Model the fold of this input.
Amino acid sequence: MQVNWRNIHVARNSYAVLLAACGRSGFFLQPVESPAGDITCYSLNSINAPLYHDEIAFADCLTIAGGPHATACPEEVAEYADYVIVGEGEYTLPRLLENIRGGDGGRIPGVMTRDHYEPADTTVRLDAYPAFSVTKGYVEITRGCPFSCGYCQTPQLFGHCMRHRSIDEVAKYANRHGQSRFVSPNAFAYGSDGIHPRWDKIESLFRQCRHQIFFGTFPSEVRPEFVCGESLDLISRYCANTKLHFGAQSGSDAVLRQLHRGHTADDVITAVELCRDHAITPIVDFIVGLPFETDDDQRATGELIQWVARSGNVHVHRFIPLPGTSLAGSTARPLLKEIEKLCGNLALRGKLTGSWDDPEIRFFRRPSNDIP
Done:
């Protein structure tokens, strides 16, 4: 049975993970540029899903769709894909392929079709699956998030309970290559419940990694209230990165409360100042055009963006109401002319990146950081 994987650049790490998981069951996912073979698999997000709708619907083979959008909107995707994996794929995809090969119709937990669905009966234990195999990927160290940020799909996809890959397993994959990057919703929460950091666990991990590691940088990040002298000392002593990526999202405490971020604008200011004191460049995320922003809220965000840019760099995106989040179905509010001008000026100076004027850009442009 020929099983293919549709090449989609933003899903390249999903390919590395699922190639490894399926390989253990004897299935090789052949990368392709169009549907072919017996089966073609897709990983879709909520921005690129419309681009592949017709390709999947009219494919001359069986199609399997997974990813954030398929999990958030399985009924919609099941209208044009033969099988939809709802949730995590490491266990479900190989199980589905085996079921199809055996002629049993794919009616298994965690898979939706046009006329059948049974919720998944498993949760992925990260240590049970390789981080990657023949195709190098990032090392996912943590899955899940205890917070409920209104714009974020992560807890809806992976739950509120953090699951960690063990130190030995992380180090095994990190030590295969000269450089490694880690994936986590909050790298500084590794080994913890996601609320109370465990610096001893992080240091134990670092000590077992023999080569260069990038921690708290793309494609990962940290939370601003976890940035402290102890966490930055660990970065300085053990890691290759001289930058740290964290989310502010807004300069308005009222907006942060409505987003359920769990931190304040002052926490962001403190984190930036601590980074500067440790000679680490902060890369700070902001979301503009949130539906409940007032003009004053947006101006407060603009002021914080301008202040951060003096010491570091800023990454700004226009709000997108992702399905499966508490803000799904809402509408982004327009940007004030002064905020558009501020972002444009900072971008021209090389201090700001992102897609504040076109929210879809980030899903179609190749990022500046790639898998080392």
Q: What stands out?
A: The longest strand covers residues 281-288. Confidence is low (pLDDT under 50) at residues 362-372. The domain at 3-118 is CATH 3.40.50 (Rossmann fold). The two ends are 33 Å apart (CA to CA).
